[in-house]
Write a structure and sequence with these properties.
The chain is built from 11 helices and 8 strands. By secondary structure, it is of the alpha/beta class. Strands 1-2-4-3-5-6-7-8 form an 8-stranded mixed beta sheet, sandwiched between helices. Helix 3 crosses helix 4.
Amino acid sequence: MAKVAKIRYSTMEDTFLRIKDLKVRIRRRPEAGTPLLLINGLGACLEAWEPLTKRLPGRDIIAVDHPGTGLSSPPNYIFSMYENAEFYMEALDAVGVEKANVLGFSFGGTIAQEIAHSFPERVESLILCGTNAGTGSFPADPFTIMCAANPLRYIVPVVREMMAPFVYRGRVGRNPQLFETELQGWYAHRTTMLGVGAQIGTMMLGWSSMPWLASLDVPTLVLGAEEDPLAPPANSELIASIVPGAECHVYEEAGHLFLFDQPEPAAKHISDFLDRVAAKEA
């Protein structure tokens, strides 16, 4: 187990596949058990996951660069939320995976919800982190939205660091220099404006999981952060109160990037949850 923990997920070999007529980058750390599919937030490449993945040793992990992020080609139109979910199911098909535990962060959490709704037979369990339910959720305040919408945040590192106290808060908000040390994966590849614009466009289409959250029939873990300005923690509590049997944890003094800038508590809750899910399936 200790040997596996030393593997640097970001240094594993890239695989490029054609999905929806796009060149898509996928990385997989194959291990025993049901794979864990990671779906990241706006503009983030798969290297950003390393602070979390290195704390999940011994797990089969699959991460994908969303169209227009990392080394994946940008989309030529705005995907609906269903098409985003379909994209990740085609990614699983491409690597020969029938069923996965699905973890979505921020914007990726909305895609994860859509996957659990539209493709329930492909989902072993659902982990929603720092996200919301779309239309009908508790919104971010206008100033946070304005800062988050600044396109330079996705292109110029110094702008991301300047915006960190307002957009992320938590540990990285108090110390933006973490992007130069522990969170270097966020700068591994700059996203394209077309890519992040398409993601923002998806959210502007008015998607909501509120009408069907109560019908989800899959083990669900919801994680939120007390200081999160983009996905206020009331959203985590709301989702967990609606999804039958959902487990919820909100971390004190943590911000939007809690999975990355202080990943230990979340990694433990995720590992314990996945172990319980696996035990029930055994």
